[in-house]
Design the sequence.
């Protein structure tokens, strides 16, 4: 009788040890072993337990829609790549099984190509001029620089999550993730948009950007560049503010002084009577449009230049720039259709 009791006690101790320490999960098969982000993948094996652990695709944690001791259905997560699939239960992990990501998605975690529109809303108003060789005069090329322009550049997404919680709560999570979050928060109230885009999970709203400015409607197509920061209201739309530099071809200081003195000394001679000496000296917007490069007298134009060297010089004007940005997913544009 005594030996029988000892055997029973020994078996009970073995059962307790097995339950206490558990067995390593064994991943036997991954079906299919290739797929795209968002595809459901069936994992079969042993010792998965009845309480959900975690599944990773090359280190990226996946959402699971079914979990039993021998079978798991996992969804290929955003950002996953080709590599090993691993099942982890508690502190024990299975050996990895190979998985190939069929169509890697565009990774927007750090960099995105930006297009958009904007304008310089704060800064010196100025006019750019060119030399009109046909009329031997200055001709304005851009009047009122504060016009809507096109943007093309790159945005660098910053690692901070602060300020993006309201966006994440509005869009994040699959139904399973939302249910788990509600359970963890001990609430039945909605905390995420049902069936929301997983791109908004752990959302990072802040970015820096550098962009070239284009003004197709003006004579100066490339209007300079802008560098600054942005707030990504959605993954499709950003508000931008930055510091801009605009190259402007302006009358040189010497030409301004000479032109002002010439107009002041000949107030009744055409075409000087069409210009204001003070406006010329202070280079007010449009003041030099049509101003002659050769001297005039009572008989008309002469062969003497007002100023011996080039009448214009390029200056870079700074200003505060406001705009909106739209990320451009080049991978999606050039990805072949599956149909």
Sequence:
């Amino acid at each position: 009788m005594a030996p029988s009791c000892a055997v029973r006690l020994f078996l009970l101790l073995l059962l307790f040890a097995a339950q206490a320490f558990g067995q390593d999960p064994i991943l036997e098969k991954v079906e299919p072993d290739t797929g795209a982000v968002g595809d459901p993948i069936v994992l079969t094996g042993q010792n998965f337990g009845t309480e959900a652990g975690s599944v990773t695709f090359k280190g990226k944690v996946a959402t699971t829609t079914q979990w039993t001791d021998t079978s798991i259905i996992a969804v290929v997560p955003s950002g996953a790549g080709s590599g090993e699939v691993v099942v982890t239960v508690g502190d024990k992990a299975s050996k990895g099984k190979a998985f190939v990501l069929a169509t890697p998605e565009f990774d927007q975690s750090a960099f995105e190509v930006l297009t958009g529109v904007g304008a310089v809303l704060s800064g010196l108003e100025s006019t750019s001029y060119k030399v009109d060789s046909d009329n031997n005069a200055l001709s304005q090329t851009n009047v009122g620089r504060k016009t809507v322009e096109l943007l093309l550049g790159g945005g660098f997404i910053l690692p901070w999550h602060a300020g993006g919680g309201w966006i994440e709560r509005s869009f994040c999570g699959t139904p399973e993730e939302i249910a788990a979050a509600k359970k963890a928060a001990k609430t039945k109230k909605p905390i995420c948009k049902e069936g929301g885009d997983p791109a908004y999970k752990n959302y990072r709203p802040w970015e820096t950007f550098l962009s070239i400015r284009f003004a197709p409607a003006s004579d100066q197509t490339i209007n300079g560049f802008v560098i600054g920061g942005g707030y990504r209201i959605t993954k499709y739309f950003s508000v931008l503010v930055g510091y801009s530099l605009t190259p402007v071809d302006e009358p040189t200081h010497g030409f301004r002084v000479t032109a002002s003195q010439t107009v002041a000394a000949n107030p009744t001679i055409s075409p000087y009577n069409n210009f204001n000496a003070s406006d010329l000296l202070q280079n007010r917007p449009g003041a030099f449009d049509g101003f002659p490069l050769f001297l005039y007298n009572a008989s008309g134009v002469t062969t003497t230049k007002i100023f011996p060297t080039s009448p214009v010089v390029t200056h870079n004007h700074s200003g505060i720039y406001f705009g909106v940005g739209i990320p451009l997913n080049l991978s999606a544009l050039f990805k072949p259709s599956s149909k």
Residues 21-101 form a domain with the Immunoglobulin-like fold (CATH 2.60.40.10).
